[in-house]
UniProtKB/TrEMBL annotation:
UniProt domain HTH cro/C1-type: residue ranges: 11-83
GO MF annotation list: DNA binding
Name assigned to this protein: HTH cro/C1-type domain-containing protein
SUPFAM superfamilies: lambda repressor-like DNA-binding domains (SSF47413)
């Protein structure tokens, strides 16, 4: 029995034991020996086989589909944190994962980046630059202010300024494409994702080539070099932070190495 399957079974058992039968339409009789819901009741609510559900709790080696997990999450009335944990333990993608909007007000995002002395900016779900400070504007130039909706990917692959500014542009561009593929794994059905992808593939032969490689890399920090038009060569260290409540938002800081 794997630790992952054992943890999945234990989580489901603990969750159902916290459920009050009456709240789910089941009588709380004196003969009820099980704390919370019975396994058979959970199976009934989720419209799955009682035997199959028992095997899940027992940590047996069986395949659990995303649809079945979705029914279990709904049956047990899991909140978004419990639901995310359930799918993570099962190693499945949640087909109905709640999509967080960019709920933080633009003014609040701007106040966050303005508090930093070093270049700082915030990326949205598809790497739109939602807020940036004076340090970022000085480093990257006027493309941030010139674009109605500045996007880091459009800048790197479609703006000639990026090739002159970014040290080792080809190496960085390859990694950025791989990082974006990894970062977009939960948005493959989003029309906005496909619209941006089409624009990049049609506008940049390099992006189209890199995207076909299916390289997948997690975004990470490290040294970044820039050939600034007035300051000359600039070496900085990049750090990226995700917001706890809205993981699709990334705060990027560029500090001295």
């Amino acid at each position: 029995m794997s630790i992952q399957r054992q943890a999945l079974g234990a989580f489901l058992m603990a969750t159902r034991q916290k459920c009050q039968p009456a709240a789910f339409g089941f009588p709380h009789g004196q003969r009820r020996r099980t704390q919370g819901l019975r396994r058979e009741e959970v199976a009934q609510l989720a419209d799955i086989s009682p035997t199959w559900y028992t095997w899940i709790e027992q940590g047996r080696k069986i395949n659990v589909s995303g649809k079945a997990l979705d029914r279990l999450a709904l049956a047990l009335r899991m909140d978004k944190t419990q639901r995310a944990y359930l799918f993570e333990l099962a190693g499945q993608h949640d087909p109905n994962a709640p999509q967080a909007a960019d709920e933080i007000a633009p003014l609040a995002l701007q106040q966050i980046v303005d508090d930093f002395a070093m270049p700082a900016y915030v990326l949205g779900r598809f790497w739109d630059v939602l807020a940036w400070n004076g340090g970022a504007r000085d480093l990257f130039g006027d493309w941030l202010d010139a674009a109605l909706a500045p996007n880091l990917l459009r800048f790197v692959f479609l703006d000639p300024q990026a090739r002159a500014l970014v040290e080792g542009w080809e190496t960085r561009a390859q990694r950025i494409a791989a990082e974006f593929r990894a970062d977009s794994r939960d948005h493959l059905e989003d029309p906005a994702f496909h619209q941006l992808l089409t624009e990049l593939q049609q506008g940049s032969a390099e992006f189209a080539q890199y995207w076909k490689r299916y390289d997948v890399l997690e975004r990470h920090g490290g040294e970044r070099g820039f050939h600034h038009p007035t300051r000359g060569d600039v070496a900085l260290r990049q750090m990226t932070f995700q917001l706890v409540d809205q993981e699709h938002l990334k705060l990027v800081l560029l500090t001295r190495p």
